[in-house]
Amino acid sequence: MRKANLPTILVAILVASILILRLVSFQVRETQVAVKATFGDVPKDTGSLEPGLHWKWPWPVQEIYRYDRRLRVYQDILDEVQTKDGKPILVNCYVGWRIIDAAKFQRRVQNEERAEEKIGKILRDQKGAVIGGHFFSDLISLRDEEKGLEPKFGEIEGKIRENVSAKLGDLYGIDVPVVGIKRLELPQQITIDVFKRMENERMRLAEKYRSEGERLATEIRADADRQREEILAEAMAKAKRTMGEADANAAEYYEEFAKNPELAIFLRKLEALEGTLERRATVVLDGRSAPFDVLEDPQTSLNRIEEEAQ
To answer: Which CATH architecture group holds 72-186?
Structure first.
């Protein structure tokens, strides 16, 4: 009997050990943050539990509260705020938030629904405070580097995020890494004035760019005219130099031809003969006729040239 009961006893001990282990231990996942409450209370000096295996007293002595620490998105309603210069504007913002201090979150909030109520209230307050510190033109003005104007969405969003994150972190253990302006609208009564002002700004910029384009076109035309004049002057000077050199060379040739007229006549006949026979042609002429007489015996041709020169 004793031998038969030994396996049963071992199994019972194993099951009891597992049950006891489950009662005194728990696991926090990588996507979670947790806190231990003793008799339903979370002391102020209690910190959040990081992912891993942890120990606890069995219920009802201690109870574990787990929260998802992944990023969540909250979006508020489109409500009206006043700018620094008293202009009404409708703004809708979104917030990316996550739980980083489970102990503080459990003491002050307890669940995600109440957390988003707190986030919405603080977001509306800070949205009105930050936008109320900026002029209407900071939200809708066109970029104008000359006047130093440009939309300040990044600055406004950064300031709202800084204020909201500081308050939610101190009060509820919530971190806010992202705040953005999702939607921006104008009340009906000021829409026409805003569009008119935007149209005037665009007209002013268009006139500025048109004037700048005309100035650049004038400069380009003036530079082209200057270059044209310089090129023409240089070409005229070169042509005059070439003509002078040609006249000098011609004078040398004329002087040489005056000394030897037979050579001049012979060269002219060669030029005429070259022009006549430039294309394929059949010509039947007297071989003694100029300029074909140069094709005769050189001595006979030379005698004739000397006679013509005399």
So the answer is: 2-Layer Sandwich (3.30)
Q: What residue has token string 């990588």?
A: 30
- Domain residue ranges of the chain, discontinuous segments joined by +: 2-67, 72-186, 200-253, 260-309
Q: Report CA-CA distances (Å) from 236 to 226, 228, 241.
A: 15, 12, 9
Q: Confidence band (pLDDT; 50, 70, 90) for 8?
A: confident
| Single-letter residue type at 185 | E
The length of the chain is 310
Asked if residues 99 and 91 have their Cβ atoms less than 8 Å apart, the reply is no
CB atoms within 10 A of CB 139: 19
Longest CA span, the chain: 166
Per the listing, tokens 């509820």 go with 172
| Whole-number Å distance between alpha carbons of 115 and 111 | 6
Count of H helices and E strands in the chain? 8, 8
Tell me if 130 sits within 8 A of 156, measured CB to CB. yes
- If you ran DSSP here, which 8-state letter would residue 60 be given? T
Dump pLDDT digits (tens) for 223-252: 998 998 889 888 888 888 888 888 777 777
The Cα–Cα gap between 132 and 134 comes to 6
End-to-end CA distance of the chain: 166
